[in-house]
Amino acid sequence: MSAIPTWLSKPTLILGCGNVLFGDDGFGPAVAEYILQSCKIPEDVCVLSAGTSAGKLLFDIALSEERRPTRIILIDAVTFSGRTPGELFELSLDALPPVKHWDFSLHQAPGANLLGTLRDECRTDIVLLVVQAAAIPQEVRWGLSP
Predict the structure, then answer these.
(1) How far is 90 from 120, CA to CA, in rounded Å?
(2) Does residue 1 carry a pLDDT above 60?
(3) Phi, psi at residue 37, to the nearest 5°?
(4) Which residues does residue 125 pair with via DSSP β-bridges, in sequence order?
(5) Angle subtended at Cα 130 by Cα 25 and Cα 132, rounded to the nearest 5 degrees
(6) Which site among 14, 36, 48, 64 is 20 to 30 Å from 56 CA-CA?
(7) CA nearest to 55, candidates 112, 4, 11
(8) Does the CA dihedral 26-102-93-47 come out positive or negative?
């Protein structure tokens, strides 16, 4: 029997999601890195800068029969009309678009489907904390907007 990874064994998992190569999409990993470097993290919490691997981690969590977090907090960037760049808000899981566009994006299914499965079938509390991005470029561009 193998050891259970830390991110599966703690009750609360905070995932910083996004691609640091595409401007504001790197917000989630930047927040996770800030928490890891600057905050005292409680023993029952695991913080990961998941980057673009969030889908794989969520899939592993859904399949885990031994243990899984009871709460997952995802931190990510979004582009919604009517929001001010830099605005931080909680997003309902039901507000995520159900249409699949890209396999690697948490902003569309399968990420939304996987989160729904974790919430509904695995009884995991899912919290989505998002920031309104000023820009998520189509080409590689390092760094967050002000």
Answers:
(1) 19
(2) no
(3) -90, -25
(4) 71
(5) 65
(6) 36
(7) 112
(8) negative
Residue with the two structure tokens 């989505």: 128
Rounded distance between C-alpha atoms, residue 138 and residue 16, angstroms: 21
* pLDDT tens digits for range 10-50: 999 999 999 998 889 999 999 999 999 999 999 999 999 99
Residue of 139, 145, 112, 82 whose CA lies nearest to 17: 112
Instruction: Rounding to the nearest 10 degrees, give the CA dihedral for residues 108, 78, 73, 117.
Output: -20
- Tokens in use for 60? 């592993």
Pairing label, strands 125-132, 88-91: antiparallel
The number of angstroms, rounded, from the C-alpha of 64 to the middle of its chain's C-alpha atoms is 18
Q: What is the pLDDT of residues 49-99, one digit of tens each?
A: 998 888 888 888 888 887 889 999 999 998 888 899 999 999 888 877 665
* Residue-level pLDDT at 102: 45
